Every structure is written in structure tokens, then in C-alpha cells.
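**Backbone description:**
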Amino acid sequence: MQTNLFEPPKLVRFTPRDYQQSAHDKAFQRWDDGERGVLVRLFTGGGKTPIACLIAGTWLARGDDHRVMVISYEKQLVWQFAQEVRDFLGIEPGIEMEKERAIGTDKIVVASRASLLLAQKVADHQREQLAEHGITELGPLWKSRADSFLKMLSKQRATPEQIRDQIELLSHEPEAHEDNWSRLHRFDPEYKWLLVFDEAHRHVRKLRSVGYLTDWFWKNPDTKQLGLTATPKRADRVSIGSVMFPAIAADYPLFHHKQPCAVKEGYAVPYIQRYISVEGVDFKSLNKIAGDFDEGELERVLGAEKTLASLCQPLLDMVGDRKTLIFSPGVEMAANVARFINARCQAVCPECQSQGWYPRLLIGDGAQCECGTLLAPENITKDGEQARSIHGGTHLSDRKDVYDGHQKGEFQFLSVCGLCREGYNDPDISCVAVFRPISKAASSLAEQLKGRGCRPARAIILALCLLKTAAERLSLIAESEKPDCLIIDLVGITGLDDCASTALIYAEGLEDGIIDRAQEILEEEEGGDVEEALERAEREDAEEKEKIKQQRLEAERMAKEEFERRAKANADVDYSVHDVGHSRSNSGDPREATDGQYKFLESLGVKIVGYVLTKKQAGRLIDKLLSGETPEHATNETGIDSENWEAQGPSGKQVRFAAWKRINISWCRTKADATLAISASMNPSEFREKMTKMMQDAKTDAALTAAGKKLAKCGKANDPGLVALGRRRRNELSQGEDF
């Protein structure tokens, strides 16, 4: 066994990146300052395991009484972490899982959390049955062993005296502690342990399996904890920080618009977003579990043959030759995705040279290119099994064979259910298709799934490590065979307004309105660069705010000049910069817009300044705004110059009230929107009246769609009455009826 675990030769193969070395240094600084636990948050593929090994080596070098235990939750991840320890530290770790047992001399132990569980206590009825046999001193006896003893007694395979002797022997085993039984007790808390929690977001102290574990090791105040995760948010919103990991040693995300991040510094590839639009699927009625859509119901609605085809064929058209990972909500759907792909082959048109995927059986028997050219067998460029599927129930050895085949390029598409969410490492995956919606409450899941494709190509990983500057790394990635990762999501489906988007992954720290606008840009342009969409949304937001500010300043300047002019003429004027608004003539012209129309326009986000509207013009402007058009477009189409109107957002009173009541109005661009959001929370009946009127007054599909979006943003997309009204109005509008 290696004695000096931190000999330089053992770390020669690993030169830490700047952020990895910083995480190591800050972790020890925080512990030395008295913190019990620290969190290292790194993007997927950022090297969390190497950092953990680096930290573990330093921890062990601090003294012979120091130990390290890595705690994971999945068998495959335990073996994977143990292998990393061998590779980076050159020592053989003990494994505590199922039949594998660590030994007392192991300095590093990799354990599954399940193996360290506290055994269930003997049930009352078991206690009573044992007492009937004169067995009352149970010591650390646990439920399953009690069942075994009772069966032995009932079949007269053992006497009560023999059972008492076995219980006595159990009480002297290292797993026994007082009246409890756990493999955890075999690890001496007198040592100074470093507990490393892999995928830290899965470990919160309120869990029975975690609380007892930490209590055991915390008997020594010098024991410390390290959490590793790419996604610190949990769907149940329980904090992992306050008790387990109160200090931060590293926060290096995939993307951040202001702080250093992997994409900007050349350690990860950027995402390119594309969408598949699925028609005729309604998710509003689906149940949610732990904040996310129920996977069984998702498979039911997405696994139908027609819908499956509408997912798979666009995928094939978009993906090209990219190695692809496909996530499905159910086992059968994952298998059907693979079957659909394998029933097709890739062929190139001899006339227009376009490449596409076609049913194999139709090649030479009717399959034709969009240009009309019939395709023959000699036009096939890729054939044979191009997809395979696996799921959580697939045997481990079979999984490994499939993983190996995909990584070696034996087939292009890997279709999975319940796998590859965390810990799966294949740098050559350059397309991730998520064939299921994910709610915003479970946004960390979306980040985990899509993170499978953010690593740079395998061929350049070593070269990247040798480059010193971000510019050099970015250039190498851009010139590689994997300059980006294609993300394919579902879009255009009824009931998907509250879903986690790729923009949400990139947009940490940005306002909800900017994230929503970036998502709109990506949808309008049928995908594109996510970073560019966010930058454009930020730019538009800043321009809008600056425009409003300048209009307000200009209005105040003009009002002040008017005040000074009249003052010089000895005119009596009551002046206030807040009185600037539309200019009304005193002609009494019946064609002139009414005060009510001006007031309604202000609630819709447009305040008229220095201009007189006609009733017809005001009505046309109101209709456009109700149809969801932007104020800029609506005023331009109505013939109103930019200097004659000001954008009006929610009032200060609305903002203060919403903040006090914790009502989300971040999406609201107008007073009317804020009124809807507030009434949805505070006065449901009033909200229903407003939404009913809005939908009944809708004269176009666009106006009805705008009303539907507001219904969803207010969190009322599952209101059956309003949904039914919307569908009825849609049908009436489609038939040209107007009531």
C-alpha cells in the first residue's frame, strides 16, 4: 500500500486547470476558517472527480489520522469514482457496496449511500412474537433478521437458546452500535474524515439516509464535508447549503453572462438550439411528480405512433452525422425511437445531392427526394443498425456493451430512459435530443440531460489542457470536429409554457423577462445560438429602458420650457412633470379619441404625448396591442411617430404591492398585465371576469393567442372553464363567427 499519497509522481498525469486549483485552495481555506462543509459547483465535464482526488490527496497528507469517504447513490457511479481514484492517486480504494466491503486499513473508501443505511428497527409484532419464545433482549437486531429468526423458530430449525446466542454474537459485530445496526458503524468516527458527496444535490440532511450518516461522523468536530455538483438546485427547493455545505469553494457554471464560465473560457462547447414542433398534444392535464411531469403519462401521450414519427423524422433531418443521445420518458418509447430509426437508412439524391433519411423498404420502390428524383439502393450512404436503446432495468454488462459500441461509433443514435442523466461521459456526443418536456421546477434535470453534450471532442481534450489562454482554447474548439452541441427540444405544444428551456440554463442571474424574450427569439428563428439570443434579449431590454428614460427626460424638458415661457409672460401655470401626456384639442370634434380610450391605451403600455388620436385610430391601436403586438410595431402601423408616445410599464404602486404579496409580475410589461397577475393571486373571481372578457372580445386568432399566453403566465393554464372558453372562441373564429 502506498504510504505517501501525495508524492508528485502520482499527480504528474493531472495538471489542474486554473479553476480546479482555485477550488482546491479555497476548499481548504474555508475548512481552516472553521466551515464544516464546502460546495464545488462545476459544469458537466468540468472535472469534479479530478478536483475531489486532488483535495483528497492533500487531506490525507495532513496526517495518519485522516481518512476520506466518497458517498454516491448509484452503483455505476461508485465504480466509476473508485476507478478515478486509482487513476489520479495511484492507490486502491476500498468499496463499500452490496457484497464488497472496505477494510480498516483503507485510507479512501468509496461507498453507496444505500449500503450505509441504518437498518430498520424490529417491529412491535415481531418483538411480541419473539417474546413468546422467551427472547426479550434484542440488542441491535433489525427487522429483516428478526423475520429470519422467527421463520427458523416456527420451523424448529433453531431453539430459543440458539437464537439468543446469535443475537449476543451480533451485538459484538462492528456493525452494531448500542441498539442500532449499520455498516456505517464499521468506520471509526474518531478519525478526521473528509466526506465527499458526489452529486451533492441528491444529499440533504433531512433524508434519513443522510442525517444519520452525518451525525455519525460529526462526532469528530474535525470531520469536514465536500459537495460536488453541476446542478445545486433541487426540484423540491430544499437547500443543500445551509447545513451540509454552507460555504462555496467554486462556482464555475457552463455559462454566465457576467462571471467566468466554461463556454466563454474554452472548456465547453456552446449550445445550438433547434426545436421539433409537435401538434395535437395537450400537456395541461398531466400530473406532476416532485415538480416535474409524470413520466408514465408523458410516454402515453408521446409514444403514439403518429406523434413518435413527428419527433423522429425531424430529428433525422436535423442531426446530420452528429453522434446523438436521445432521452425518452418511458422504456417502450425509448425502444420505439430506436426501432423507428433502424427502419430507415440515409441516402443521397443523385440529382440535387441532398441527403436525407428514408424508409429502407421504400428505397428502390417509391422513395423519392423532395426534388422528385426516385432513390435506388446505390444511393444509400448509411445503413444497418444506427440506433440502440437501453434503460434503467438493462443489465449492467449489457449497458456497458451498448455504451462501448456508441462511443466507438458503431451506431449513431443512443436512445435511453432513466440513464445517462449524471456521470455518463462521452465527449463525442454532439447532439442531445430531449423527447419530453421538463418543468421549470425541475430545471436542474434539463441541465443534466443537455450537459451530456457540452464536453469538447475527445480528440482535442489533451491539447486543450496544454493551452494557456481562453482565446487559444476557443479557437481550437471552433476548428475541431465538434465546434458546438446541437440541442433538440419540443416546442409548440399546448400546455408547455412553464418548461425549462436551454435559454434558462444559460441565463443564470438574468431577469425572467429577458429569459422569456430569448426563448421567443429562438422559437421565432427556429433555433440558433443560445448565447446570441440572450445577448439580443438583453440589448433589446436595455434599449427599451433607455428609450423610456429618454422619452421621460424629453417630456420633462419640454414641460419645463413651457413653464418658463409662460412664467415670463406672467401666465398662471400649475406645473408638474407628471402632467405631460396627450394633447387634446378643445374643438369638441366627435371624431377625437375619448378619455377612456387614452386611459385604456396607457394600461396597455402606450401613453400618447403631444398628439391627438381619432377614435378610429385609437381603436385600431388598441386592437393591435390586444393581439399581442409590441408597442413599437403597433404605433408604427397606426401612423404614430416615436416621439409621440411613451412606453408605460406597471405602476410603482403595483410593483410595491406585488413585492409585498410575493406575486411574480416580472413578465408584466404593462399596467394591464400587472393587474391580471395581481388579481389572479388575490381575487380569482375578478381575474376570471377579466380573462373571460378578454377572450370574448378577441376578434382574431392573434388576440386569442395573446390572451392564452397571459393565462399561462398567470399560472392559470389549467383552469378548465377558461380553457374551454378559449377553445370555443378559437372554433368560432375559425368559422368566421363573431359574437
